[in-house]
Amino acid sequence: MHEMSLMESVIEIVCQTARQNGATRIKSVRLDVGALSHVDTYALLFCYEAARYGTIADAATLEINRIAGEGWCLDCGKTVALEERFGACPNCKRHRVQMTAGDELKIRDMEVI
Ligand SMILES: [Zn+2]
Questions:
Q1: pTM above 0.90, yes or no
Q2: Does 1 score more than 60 pLDDT?
Q3: How far, in Å, from the CA of 97 to the mean position of ligand 1?
Q4: Ligand 1 centroid – CA 35 distance (Å)
């Protein structure tokens, strides 16, 4: 499963970062997940609980921060909202929009004890 390997990497990174900073427990993890990134939030939460088991993050809460899709319309020459990958510009209805946000999956921050 795509989400499982993602969450395994997330847990690995946060545990490593926490240890490097002398922390013994992780209290919370916040992720930025783009609305156009094709990852399922429920699957992420489920995989997170499985991946954190037995690690110093096994009681850490997970907060998912959804990032709205955005693109640069070449015809309008401005940033527009993007509902889907390769979607049309809401102003001119053309498809010359380059995605600039909404595709990310990254660790925003974490809290340790
Ligand atoms: Zn446009």
A1: no
A2: no
A3: 7
A4: 20
